[in-house]
User: Which sequence fits this backbone?
């Protein structure tokens, strides 16, 4: 009964109200030393950045910096007759996704990862021209089979927020990435972040929820990737100030919501993203990026 309930909950979340980036350090060895990735046309170069030595800036300084566009994707597949109007908002069809990514590349956008964003927000460190962050939520298999090769061709990297309940599962509506695929994404220079166990509303956490939704998923993802989890994405984009200390206590460095106003005290834990709608053409996406950030 529990398994069936989780399956139903997961499928419903994915289709109707899904929440909505190498910001991680090695668990062993030089834990504070990471690589800042800067893309040029069709290639990737890395410059070492020691984020462990970065001092967190005051909120006013962080809020004063120009926001970096961050896109949030869920499923990337062709629409089905059974997909509802709301569900289609979270499902970007394959060719449209490829066209959107080509638009970004043709427009001169360079993908960045959380280490770069963290350094920029706290110290004003330089970013590549027209920086953008691509994030993908909920562990969907198409993120490996469709998204990964599409981004590879452009020299782009991304952040994948994993919901651990779904790892390796095959569902009625969608299949999910395996542990091996998640590790491969991390090994190839992408970032793996935490997206809770089963997408429970962050604003409702009490008691054992912190262990079930944060501690256990973090441990599992660190075992899979061999890297420390430092990035967190709120389910549904919903957050509350009372829960932020719990994220800090567990070593998270930044947390991502959706498009609501950032917290004036903890902007690093209320970083804005916008959902890339399945209804948007590349031109509409371009306009939305400019208007939203």
Assistant:
């Amino acid at each position: 009964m529990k398994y069936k309930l989780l399956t139903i909950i997961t499928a419903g979340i994915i289709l109707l109200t899904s929440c909505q980036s190498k910001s991680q350090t090695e668990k062993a060895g030089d834990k504070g030393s990471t690589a800042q990735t800067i893309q040029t046309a069709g290639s990737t170069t890395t410059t070492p950045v020691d984020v462990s030595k970065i001092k967190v800036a005051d909120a006013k300084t962080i809020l004063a910096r120009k926001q970096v566009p961050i896109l949030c994707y869920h499923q990337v597949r062709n629409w089905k007759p059974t997909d509802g109007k709301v569900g289609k908002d979270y499902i970007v069809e394959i060719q449209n996704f490829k066209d959107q990514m080509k638009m970004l590349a043709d427009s001169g956008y360079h993908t960045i990862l959380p280490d770069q964003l963290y350094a920029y927000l706290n110290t004003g460190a330089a970013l590549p021209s027209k920086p953008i962050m691509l994030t993908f939520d909920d562990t969907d298999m198409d993120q490996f089979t469709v998204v990964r090769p599409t981004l590879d061709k452009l020299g782009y990297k991304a952040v994948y927020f994993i919901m651990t309940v779904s790892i390796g599962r095959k569902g009625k509506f969608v299949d999910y990435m395996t542990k091996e695929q998640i590790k491969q994404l991390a090994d190839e220079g992408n970032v793996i972040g935490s997206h809770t166990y089963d997408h429970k509303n962050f604003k409702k956490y009490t008691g054992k929820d912190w262990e079930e939704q944060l501690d256990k998923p973090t441990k599992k993802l660190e075992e899979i990737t061999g890297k420390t989890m430092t990035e967190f994405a709120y389910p549904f984009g919903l957050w509350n100030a009372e829960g932020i200390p719990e994220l800090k206590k567990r070593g998270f460095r930044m947390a991502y919501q959706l498009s609501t106003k950032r917290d004036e005290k903890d902007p690093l834990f209320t970083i804005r993203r916008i959902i890339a709608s399945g209804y948007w053409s590349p031109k509409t996406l371009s306009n939305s990026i400019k208007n939203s950030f």
About this structure: The CA atoms of residues 239 and 281 lie 30 Å apart. The two ends are 44 Å apart (CA to CA). The longest strand covers residues 33-40. The mean pLDDT is 88.
